[in-house]
Design brief:
This protein starts with 5 loop residues before the first strand and ends with a helix. A twelve-stranded mixed sheet has the order 3-4-2-1-5-12-11-6-7-10-8-9, with helices on both faces. It has helices spanning about 15-20, 40-50, 90-105, 120-125, 130-140, 170, 175-190, 215-230, 240-245, 250, 260-275, 310-325; strands spanning about 5-10, 35, 55, 70-75, 110-115, 145-150, 155-160, 200, 235-240, 255-260, 280, 290. α7 (about 175-190) crosses α8 (about 215-230). The radius of gyration is 20 Å and the shape is elongated. It contains twelve helices and twelve strands. With about 325 residues, the protein is of the alpha/beta class. It folds into two domains: about 1-140 and about 285-325, Isopropylmalate Dehydrogenase (3-Layer(aba) Sandwich), CATH 3.40.718; about 145-285, Isopropylmalate Dehydrogenase.
């Protein structure tokens, strides 16, 4: 395993990101952890939750403090109350990501794990923001990345991510699909050490187009790409009807399913694993994992948030950081 610590961005300060990050204090982590966030906010949230946490300031090169939760302090723009969003703190949220990216790129951190952010309030601040995945790609100069969720015995990747459903067919070009499959296949081999991954590829249309009667994307775009990549040695099955792809018979022996759009694949995975699923960004020059849920503003400060997904994200980050090629 990489000896560099794993950095955790605590996310939207009004949400449950600070809460679940604090819950790591009582957990035996698989690696050294550093929380990135406003220390007074974390101290106040710990008091609100009624939990006792020993904090220690993190600095590069400083040894870990046994039994303490290390914090790399980044100040809020204005004080924050649990459950109450403020656009003024949007740049703080992005500053957490920027610091984590810089630390991972320099080798200071071995991986980054992200607590949830609130896309709406960031956009309300006048900052165009589609999501973590796109932001990380842009700020690591990565042309394409692939979102993959892991949990419930499944791995599900997405050919398109935060795209309106009406725009998916135009985005899903042959070149884009081929690039996604290449990144996914390489990530499964190098990050997860699967020598020859078997990938199930969902069709775009109902019944995978029904031979062209329900859409021709499978025939005109997908099948030529899959045939070409099979010719280079990849083990690809599809395009398959999405409504039967996730049956036990289909999944047997498969290493990952590739869905064509966000809500084609993720409802299945989240049904199987919600609260313990992990989001992985493949194709980046750094290791990044994330929780599989949102900011849950209504739970912030209540003590009812569940840190299961964050713990799973840390465990997978430690695994990937230790096995990355």
């Amino acid at each position: 395993m990489s000896q560099a610590p794993i950095v955790i961005t605590t996310g939207e300060p009004a949400g449950i990101g600070p809460d679940i990050s604090l819950m790591l204090a009582s957990w035996r982590a698989p690696a050294r952890l550093v929380l990135l966030g406003d220390r007074p906010l974390l101290e106040e949230r710990a008091r609100l939750l009624g939990v006792t946490v020993r904090f220690a300031d993190y600095a590069p090169g400083r040894p870990a403090r046994e039994g303490a939760l290390e914090v790399l302090h980044v100040p809020l723009a204005e004080p924050c109350r649990a459950g109450r969003l403020s656009p003024k703190n949007s740049r703080y949220v992005l500053a957490l990501l920027d610091r984590a990216i810089a630390g991972c790129m320099s080798g200071e951190f071995g991986a980054m794990v992200t607590a949830p952010v609130h896309k709406g309030v960031i956009n309300d601040a006048g900052i165009p923001f589609t999501g973590h995945t796109e932001y990380l790609a842009e700020n690591t100069a990565t042309a394409r990345v692939v979102m993959m969720l892991v949990g419930g015995g499944l791995r599900v990747a997405l050919a398109t991510t935060h795209v309106a459903l009406k725009d998916v067919p135009a985005v899903l070009t042959a070149a884009e699909l081929e690039a996604v499959i290449r990144i996914l296949e390489q990530g499964l081999r190098t990050r997860l050490r699967i020598p020859k991954p078997r990938i199930l590829v969902a069709g775009l249309n109902p019944h995978a187009g029904e031979g062209g009667y329900l859409g021709r994307e499978e025939i005109e775009v997908m099948e030529p790409v899959l045939a070409r990549l099979r010719g280079s040695g990849m083990d690809l099955v599809g395009p398959l009807p999405a409504d039967t792809l996730f049956t036990p018979r289909r999944l047997q022996g498969a290493d990952c399913a590739l869905a064509m759009y966000h809500d084609q694949g993720l409802p299945v995975l989240k049904y199987a694993s919600f609260g313990a699923g992990v989001n992985v960004t493949l194709g980046l020059p750094i290791v990044r994992t994330s929780v599989d849920h949102g900011t849950a503003l209504e739970l912030a400060g209540s003590g009812k948030a569940d840190a299961g997904s964050l713990r799973a994200a840390v465990e997978l980050a430690a695994q990937l950081a230790g096995t990355a090629a």
